[in-house]
Write a structure and sequence with these properties.
The chain is α+β, with helices and mostly antiparallel strands. The protein folds into 2 domains: 8-168, no CATH class; 171-415, Jelly Rolls, CATH 2.60.120. 29% of the residues lie in helices and 15% in strands. The protein is built from 17 helices and 16 strands. Strand 11 (347-348) and strand 12 form a beta hairpin. It is globular, with a radius of gyration of 24 Å. The two termini are 22 Å apart. The model is unreliable at 1-36 and 479-505 (pLDDT under 50). It binds 2-oxoglutaric acid (AKG) and fe (ii) ion (FE2). 2-oxoglutaric acid (AKG) binds at residues 1, 304, 311-312, 317, 323, 325, 332, 391, 397, 399, 407, 409. Residues 500-510 have a biased composition (Acidic residues). One of its GO terms (cellular component) is nucleus. Residues 69-115 form the F-box domain. Residues 1-12, 23-33 have a biased composition (Polar residues). Residues 270-429 form the JmjC domain.
């Protein structure tokens, strides 16, 4: 599921000079990469305008376009880019014609994306996508997209997004260390799941083969059946016809991701084991305790569609729920860490309500992937079309589509994770998300429903909750100043609650 609203994410761009096929400097990456950097460099084409990383300036004998900026030379590139955000489309276009350096700045597509979103066009669900936000806002045909030779523009701020939008995620998914491989089974029984697997990720290769959508859904079939259905894709609501144009032809570093929770209603799908159903929840995960909430349960299922390189940056799923994610078309690379791990490049506030990480998936892969996969708690795997992956409650995950794809995901509360969910709803009430606005006490609502329908289970859940709190108090000496999120360090400090399971990984902090 997408980053829940309780985990506000802020971004920081890690800037490093990097090579370009036509230039002598080589890639500089964090963590002494064990990837083959030369193959990464050769997979990145030269910038279409000829823009180069800043470091290349020191190897160039020719003129530097920045010298012709006049008084604006005093401003660093980051600040120049920020200034441009104040210009309207006409001013931005004209300003770009004043010199080559400013041309390179003014065609950066992210600025045009903001302009698009704030314009009337940004409110439309059907329009012609022209391959870039700039071309779409300015109604430019391919021949009207002017090309200026910017080979004397040296800037990491301008070059880095181009690298990130051309990084092939496949480069990072090769050679998964055997110890990191997410377990794969054909299928699991509910007993096996409840006894041994509810706290670990795994992939099932046969479990969803009987779903009708596994055979019938492709991006093409969607286009023929649902072209006019309007889906939510991050900040926009677009018809599938429009989204598929975008999906096939965009250069965004973080492509807009179609992530819609009302899809079943919009597409008039039947879900569940009934005549004519499109798909149903797999048996192996057992009862979903949030079903006791009926219509009052928080948002729980999503249709996900996106192009290669789209995906989800590091997050934990909301309300300490577990999830399954079924790939219908395409393939997804998952990299996951248990709840208390410190994930390289991901910084969490003391109360876990804010997550700061590099802006894009590509940026994280470039800077932190090599270091991350060396950690003993790292789990990685590729979920192919027709397979389903289990996301245990509280696990960090980053997911990237390796090709255009369609997936279905659903969040749930298995019996074995009830204590964790009760603890979250009670102790992190300010981070609870996905409920309708008028539900102010999710913990009280859930406990009340469990008391009516599953009193024995509630008792066990409350016992787990109390035990968790007791263990926590023992560790931190009941002292608030200790902070509420000790991080598991890669150097080996491990912190587990071990509720009875011999091989318990870790659990959430109450
Ligand atoms: O398919 C994806 O991008 C991942 C979605 C996700 O985070 C999930 O299913 O929990
Ligand atoms: Fe998720």
């Amino acid at each position: 599921m997408l980053l829940p609203s309780h985990q506000r994410q802020t971004g920081s761009r890690a800037l490093k000079g990097e090579g370009d096929r036509s230039q002598p400097l080589s890639h500089s990456k964090a963590g002494n990469s064990n990837h083959d950097d030369s193959s990464l460099d050769s997979s990145i084409p030269s910038h279409p305008l000829g823009i180069k990383p800043l470091g290349n300036k020191y190897f160039s004998s020719g003129e530097d376009a920045r010298m012709l900026l006049g008084t604006l030379q005093v401003l660093p590139d980051e600040m120049l880019m920020q200034l441009l955000e104040y210009l309207d489309p006409r001013a931005l276009r004209l300003f770009g014609y004043t010199c080559k350096f400013l041309f390179a700045c003014c065609v950066v597509d992210d600025i045009w994306k903001t302009i698009f979103l704030e314009s009337d066009l940004g409110k439309k669900s059907c329009f012609e996508w022209r391959g870039s936000w700039r071309a779409t806002v300015l109604h430019l045909s391919p021949e009207q997209n002017i090309r200026v030779d910017c080979s004397n523009v040296f800037s990491d701020v301008l070059h880095r997004p181009f690298v990130c939008s051309h990084v092939s995620p496949r480069h990072y998914t090769k050679n998964i260390p055997a110890a990191n491989e997410i377990a794969r089974f054909e299928d699991l029984s509910y007993d096996e799941f409840a006894e041994s697997w509810s706290k670990k990720p795994f992939i099932l290769t046969e479990c969803i083969q009987s779903w009708p959508v596994t055979k019938s859904w492709t991006v093409e079939s969607f286009l023929s059946q649902y072209a006019d259905v309007v889906f939510r894709a991050e900040a926009v609501d677009w018809s599938f016809a429009t989204y598929s144009q975008y999906m096939r032809n965009n250069q965004d570093e973080s492509p807009l991701y179609l992530f819609d929770r009302k899809f079943a209603e919009k597409m008039t799908l039947k879900v569940g084991k009934e005549e004519g159903a499109a798909y149903w929840k797999p048996d192996c995960f057992g009862p979903d305790l949030f079903e006791l909430l009926g219509a009052e349960r928080p948002a729980h299922r999503w249709l996900i569609i996106g192009p290669e390189r789209s995906g989800s940056t590091f997050h934990k799923d909301p309300n300490a729920t577990s999830a399954w994610n079924a790939v219908i078309q395409g393939a997804k690379y998952w990299i996951m860490f248990p709840p208390l791990a410190s994930v390289p490049g991901v910084f969490v506030s003391r109360d876990s309500s804010e997550v700061t990480s590099p802006l894009s998936i590509a940026e994280w892969l470039l800077e932190f992937h090599a270091e991350a996969r060396k950690l003993p708690e790292c789990r990685e795997g590729i979920c192919q079309a027709g397979e389903i992956l289990h996301v245990p409650s509280g696990w960090w995950h980053l997911v990237v589509n390796l090709e255009d794809g369609i997936a279905l995901t659903q969040n749930f509360v298995p019996e074995s994770r009830l204590g964790g969910v009760l603890s979250f709803l009670k102790d992190k009430a300010d981070q609870v998300s996905g409920f309708e606005r008028d539900i102010s006490d999710a913990y009280g609502l859930f406990v009340g429903r469990l008391r009516e329908e599953r009193p024995g289970l509630l008792e066990e859940g409350l016992r787990q909750l109390a035990e968790k709190k007791r263990r926590w108090d023992t560790v931190v000496g009941d002292d608030d100043s200790a902070g509420d999120q000790p991080q598991k360090k890669s150097t080996g400090f491990s912190f587990g609650f071990g509720f009875g399971d011999e091989d318990e990984d870790e659990d959430e902090i109450p």
